[in-house]
Design a protein that fits this description.
Two copies of one chain form a homodimer. Chain A has three domains: 52 residues, 434 Repressor (Amino-terminal Domain) (Orthogonal Bundle), CATH 1.10.260; 122 residues, Response regulator (Rossmann fold, 3-Layer(aba) Sandwich); 147 residues, Response regulator (Rossmann fold, 3-Layer(aba) Sandwich). Chain A has 13 helices and twelve strands. Chain A has 344 residues and is an alpha/beta fold. In chain A, the strands form three sheets. In chain A, strands 2-1-3-4-5-11 form a six-stranded parallel beta sheet, sandwiched between helices. Chain A has a four-stranded parallel beta sheet with strand order 7-6-8-9, with helices on both faces. A two-stranded antiparallel sheet of chain A has the order 10-12. The longest helix of chain A is centred in the middle third of the chain and has 16 residues. The first copy, chain A, binds a DNA duplex (16 and 16 nucleotides) through helix 2 and helix 4.
Chain lengths: 344, 344
DNA sequence: CTGTTAGCGCATTCAG
DNA sequence: CTGAATGCGCTAACAG
């Protein structure tokens, strides 16, 4: 309603020129006296500078395009929190698009964002295509990728391979030799392929009695739960869920069947958020700091915007969270820990 | 990089005037022959119309401002999913701002959004202030509120009072008379006040032997866990968490102490997402369809934009989810249900 | 320090 | 059906 008032109206009311008002708005030099008159005129008219006109001139939008695979997931939420934490104090705002886990949709979202004139783009990708690469290199606006890692592009991500490897090595150390990896389909490269491969390597490294079966599930509790019977049929000493959610679904199934964890079978996850600590037994897992990923990615984009950033392909540190769901086969059952505070 | 090409370049290459190109872009009449030439020129140059210039003329941004209290919460994620589901197919994009649970920050976010020239605003509010009201009524852009309900404003929300009442009545029906309501502080009006009041009314209605104690917690597992001892000190037959998270924290505490749920004490929550179904016992709760709230809010905003919507103050329907965590004191212990599929 | 003069890229009259 | 002309509201030289 009140966007009718323009810089011209203010200038008229203050008895100065448009440029003077513009200077007032943009830290240009202006005498204290006129400064005051302009201030008063702006207050009186309720003037708000027109965003589009301003951007048309300056070629800067202060807008960051953000492409996410989905909205209703803890990790995505954390990632967004991290992004907001960096961008927001600097006056950048986020333009949000959802790809629904489709690499094609990611691409079209990026194209759309480019047309909107965003200053930079962050895409939490499920898979990098050739078109991603083209856009990243030729669009003229900096693009940083989280979720996947691809040589030659700017990526900030969790070290999925490393996490898998760390878990594999840990479980070997606990004396396990028969594992089932319950994972998602290969459409998500990082989770579906790297994490799994890392686990395989870490678990079987230098050993010949270690076996790993693979059972495919979805990302949600229920689909994991539904595959639990298949998993059990492999007679594992440990079940490794590709995400905490998968592990929780399996834990529920085991509970229903009266199968004791970790006494009869061990279970681990990846993710490390609080939920894993409230179930019983609390889930041993690896903590992924997606908020940190968000912050790093944001900072990196900002650096690129400022021209002071070289190419980077960074993996965030991992934190192993040992809780109650793994049995040490070499020493028997672990002493159970009975305090949530120590596990969160 | 390729944003250099403007409508003028295309016109020149196609051998027509700028206006003709503009018409081509905006469904204006243009001969088939020139249509083809323009199409070719656009393809060749890789022309993308400049967003800001276009908006400067049309006064339409196709941008929806969205203000959220936080990012890392399931309900907020669901809400966003719902919004995206409606807005996205219509070419609207979301400009996202986070208020960090502060009503003041909400207001400044709204003001900022207004200045960006968004077509409409959705704010998931924690508390409505006088300034909210002013902005909603005088800013000239439609504003719909979720999360809170306020007379005279356009609100779409969960029926918090109704949910509380429903839960209260249910528990009375199960023969409970000593309850503890574990809730958050009153800064969140809907959760802190309405939900609690509804419960109080539903639980004590027409009875005089029913008592409800109140214990304050935060929104997270751990803070609820830390208050569990205080809660137990009240000797309740049932503990009512204001959110599922609160209830899960309490459930964990009870488990650690070996207190059987629901045999020794019952527990309920509010929210109804999947996590509550994977813990043991699975949590009896009330399902809030935040995704539906998002869809409704989006549609409502669209209707207002089209001028075909009257004022509205709508509450979404509730779904009672009976699982395993409540004991029927009139009939003894419920038969336990042993299948996740029936509870999700 | 300040006013004047030009556009930014596009949509839209208005005459053809 | 089409081209020429006119701003949308603002910033950035350019001379004062």
């Amino acid at each position: 309603m009140d966007d009718k008032v323009t810089i011209t109206d203010v200038a008229k009311l203050a008895g100065v020129s448009k440029s003077t008002v513009s200077r007032y708005l943009n830290n240009g030099y202006i005498s204290v006296e006129k400064q005051e008159r302009v201030r008063a005129a702006i207050a009186e008219t309720g003037f708000k500078s027109n965003f589009f006109a301003k951007r048309l001139k300056t070629k800067e939008s202060k807008l960051i395009g953000i492409v996410l695979p989905r909205m209703d997931s803890v990790s995505v939420g954390k990632l967004l929190s991290g992004l907001a934490r960096i961008f927001e104090p600097l006056g950048y705002q986020g333009l949000l698009l959802v790809s629904n886990l489709s690499a094609e949709k990611e691409v079209s979202s990026i194209e759309s964002l480019l047309q909107q004139g965003v200053d930079g783009i962050i895409v939490d990708s499920v898979r990098i295509t050739e078109r991603h690469r083209q856009l990243a290199q030729n669009s003229g606006v900096p693009l940083v990728i989280t979720g996947q890692s691809e040589a030659g592009l700017d990526c900030i991500k969790i070290d999925d391979y490393g996490a898998g490897h760390m878990m594999g090595a840990y479980l070997r150390g606990q004396g396990h030799s028969r594992a089932v990896f319950a994972g998602v389909t290969e459409t998500d490269n990082a989770v579906g392929i790297e994490r799994r491969k890392g686990f395989l390597d870490g678990f079987t490294e230098g050993e010949n009695d270690a076996t790993v079966d693979f059972v495919q599930t979805g990302f949600d509790f229920l689909s994991a739960y539904n595959k639990a019977a298949d998993i059990l049929a492999c007679k594992p000493s440990v079940i490794v869920g590709a995400t905490d959610n998968i592990s929780l679904g399996i834990l529920r199934y085991l509970h229903e069947r009266g199968i004791k964890v970790p006494h009869e079978v061990s279970v681990t996850g990846f993710g490390g958020y609080d939920v894993g600590a409230v179930v019983y037994p609390a889930l041993t897992t690896i903590f992924f700091d997606y908020e940190l990923v968000g912050m790093k990615a944001a900072q990196f984009l900002l650096d690129k915007l400022a021209g002071k950033a070289e190419h980077e392909n960074l993996a965030m540190p991992l934190l192993f969270v040992e809780r109650e769901s793994v049995r040490n086969l070499k020493k028997g059952t672990p002493g159970e820990s009975y305090d949530l505070r120590s596990m969160i």
